[in-house]
């Protein structure tokens, strides 16, 4: 809450500054490879207690770094592709760039034990931004009609899991991104099964076990 003269209380300014410094330090340290919370705190110029106050675990650091990557590096590319006449290629370029960005942060994927869960959750924020591109690609017959914008974060994270690893060269990533996007081609595609709620999936699994 602002003071009567419109100034933001110093405590909040300091907190915001600490979060920004720790996030930037996370990108720097994780870009070097293996990292620890202590190394990130040292790079940010804060004590480990300050880091834990804002980021209680490794997953919180990964979330902040991913959000920074997407906000500063990927979102402008998504916005710039809004008028692209080649929408499928634009989506493919976005996926390729995301892989390049995450690969540059060499320690990011192994830093959190549940990287995939965190990454899908962060990428879901961008589903709305990707939706117009997806619809245009579907209308042009370039992408299967039963794919949804909510599918894309899972699709991208599967690509990251396989390709944002040591030894995955740019040419290898480009080849497999092309293969992955060919799976989205509507020609002769097998219809996607319905996406059920977790509880529905569980009940279906139980029914299948009961029948065996």
Automatic annotation (TrEMBL):
Signal peptide from the UniProt entry: none
Keywords noted in UniProt: DNA-binding, Transcription, Transcription regulation
HTH tetR-type domain span: 15-73
The UniProt record lists the keyword Transport: no
Keyword rRNA processing: no
Cross-referenced InterPro entries: Homeodomain-like_sf, HTH-type_TetR-like_transc_reg, HTH_TetR, Tet_transcr_reg_TetR-rel_C_sf, TetR_SbtR-like_C
Top-rank lineage group of the source organism: Bacteria
Residues in the DNA-binding region annotation: 36-55
Name of the protein described by the UniProt record: TetR/AcrR family transcriptional regulator
UniProt source species: Streptomyces gottesmaniae
